[in-house]
Amino acid sequence: MKKSLIVKSAALLGSVILSAAGCVGTAPVIVADSTPGAAAANNRQFQRLARNIDSVARQLHKLEKRLESLEKLENSLEYMAKFDARMEALEETAEQSEQMALRNQSIISELKDSLSIMEEQRVATAEIKKKVRISAKGLSQEKLYLTAYQEHLSGNYIQAIELFSSYLAGYPESRLADNALYWIGEAYYKLEDFSRAVKHLKKVAKEYPRANKAPYALYSLGLVYQQLGDSSSAEDHFKMLTENYPGSELAELARMKIEKLQ
After folding, report:
1. HSE on the CB side for 228, CA within 13 Å?
2. What are the pLDDT digits (tens) for 74-93?
3. CA 124, CA 128: separation in Å to the nearest integer?
4. Domain-by-domain residue ranges, the chain?
5. What is the tens place of the pLDDT at every residue in 179-237?
């Protein structure tokens, strides 16, 4: 577009110059003449030529201004074209992001549904396990203890209490009798039956003071009394643990509990 305008401007300028010169090809030749009339005619001709040149200069100035305006317009059009391209790219990116967000939302919704189904199945399975009672009959001593312990780990505390009680009734002199008694106390603690928990845990500490579960029973007793709001009794049992079993792995925990209670 710029080249076309320049060509047109050059043609226009040539035309104007030719016009200003009075169409050189057909203009009369000015012959030097010393007469007053000839000098006046020559002067008028030069003045007319000067005016034509001024007119050409003004037209050239207007053409320059027009070219500048056209250049600015062309630059603006190029900028707008680039801006439109960027906007189209941004719109495409935004659309892709929206589609991705919708897909992610769909995936999240499916995961929530799956988790909900899994939780329902877990609860249903737990309920079924609670309803199934395992009989101690026909189980060997070792199998009975392991089954009771597995029920305790599974959270089936009532069933665990029944099986550990059967174990104690059948094998009161067993080397695992203190463990069975301790786990019964722990099961009652989990069921928040604190009075029965205290009863069985105290029995462990009293009847099996040299057994490995004795310090654990004292620590659990401290926790039970904390749950009951009896800080004094809780502190007493933690102190008994630190004094009677200073080398126990629970002794340091008991000391920390005592510091918090004081």
Report:
1. 19
2. 777 777 777 767 777 777 77
3. 6
4. 1-20+46-75, 104-133, 141-261
5. 999 999 999 999 999 999 999 999 999 999 999 999 999 999 999 999 999 999 999 99
Q: Which CATH number fits domain 141-261: 1.25.40.10, 3.50.30.30, 3.10.100.10, 3.40.630.10?
A: 1.25.40.10
Give the DSSP letter of residue 237: H
pTM above 0.85, yes or no: no
251/114 Cα distance (integer angstroms): 45
C-alpha 222/C-alpha 202 separation (Å) is 11
Q: Which two tokens stand for residue 17?
A: 């110059």
- Distance between CA atoms of residues 174 and 170, nearest Å: 9
Q: How far apart are CA 27 and CA 18, in angstroms?
A: 10
Residue 251 vs residue 76, higher pLDDT: 251
Segment 93-107, tens digit of pLDDT: 767 767 777 677 767
Burial tier of 144 (Cβ tally within 10 Å: 0-12, 13-18, 19+): buried
113-124: buried (b, 16+ CB within 10 Å) or exposed (e) per residue?
A: eeeeeeeeeeee
- Do 251 and 245 form a contact (C-beta atoms < 8 A)? yes
Tokens of 192: 């928040």
Q: What does the alpha-carbon distance between residue 104 and residue 136 come to, in Å, rounded to a whole number?
A: 52
